[in-house]
Amino acid sequence: MSNIDFIHEEKAADIGNFLVGRLLPFRQKRSIGPFVFIDHMGPACLADHENLDIGPHPHIGLSTLTYLFDGAIFHRDSIGSAMEITPGAVNWMTAGKGVVHSERTPEHLRQKDKFMHGLQIWVALPKDREFMEPEFHHTEAKDIPAWEDEDATYKLIAGKAFGRTSPVPVYSNLYMIEIKAKNDTLIDIRGELYGESGLYVLEGEIKSGEHAYGAKQILITKDAHLCTFEMKAGTSVYIFGGDPFPEERFISWNFVATSKETLEQAKKDWIDRKFADVPGDAGYVPFPGT
User: Which of 55, 79, 175, 252 would give a disulfide with 161, using CB separation of 3.0 to 4.6 Å?
Assistant: First the structure.
């Protein structure tokens, strides 16, 4: 990957039964294009008495993207959505002016041993969409654009690239791409990307010039147009990026906004229980420190 500006290793933290690796943000880089938050969940083996239980919590000013490699999550939200996501599908929830959702192990798996592995991502909304009505969209795995050549397979999980468009309804110029190497191969995608770009090595190894990079590293460049790298057989990478926004984004807990005043109001509204409830889930995650 040409002109690498930052190399960042995944920082792991235990959250409940899960090992979560924070990829973005970090001190030197707060966003990649419109992407402001990327977490690597797992991999985690859960026993029959262990389950994912993230109770109702709020978001504003962003869209969330959930993409699983293994396992299943049941999503519920305050606009009435109720959907199980399985590997290869995409859950895309746009918070806009405010939404509440929960993420739990589906009922049919709660008494079984299970495996969980995936990515959770926040994409900031353009300023003119910051206070839009919340939405939820589920895209099945079979509907995600996929193609291959002799040495690698590709998926366009979200956005536009390679002359293709994912059906996930994004609101800015962005891309999230999966590439898996069947054999040792040179990936030359110069001219296919735009804006800023980050490449996350999920497993395996890539080389850029004389340097090799292994699993759980994210490489970030400002010149996405010049993207070439070598992949070892069995390597999987995820490329995130797009056009950055002209306005700075502020983040507080689960809130993203172009003004700190909006963040403070959202915090107050959540503490005062002014957000809508999630039908079928009576839980409540308090604001940190309250």
Answer: 175
